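Quick start: read one record
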Amino acid sequence: MTNEEMQRAMDFIIETEGKSSAKIDALADAQTRNTEGITALLAIAEIHEKEIQANTQQILAQSQQILAQSQQIATLGETTKHTDERLNALINVVELQISNGRNGKQ
């Protein structure tokens, strides 16, 4: 191999090495950006997880409140039923008094 051929071969190797080095640098930069992106996505996922947990706790608390209110409504329904029965008994007594012509007098 002549000196000129050797010089061309070395120039080729140096040029190829330079291109390879540039590509490696570009890939390293891309990997850094990807790593930063993944880190940001993980942070967002953690935030979403915390929000989901908070929402789950709120839903649970509201479900318990609804259950308590349903029980109160049922109790109120029973109380109203008893009040209606007592009111009907009073109405019956008053109607009986009126129908007997007493108008509430003995």
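The chain has a mean pLDDT of 92.
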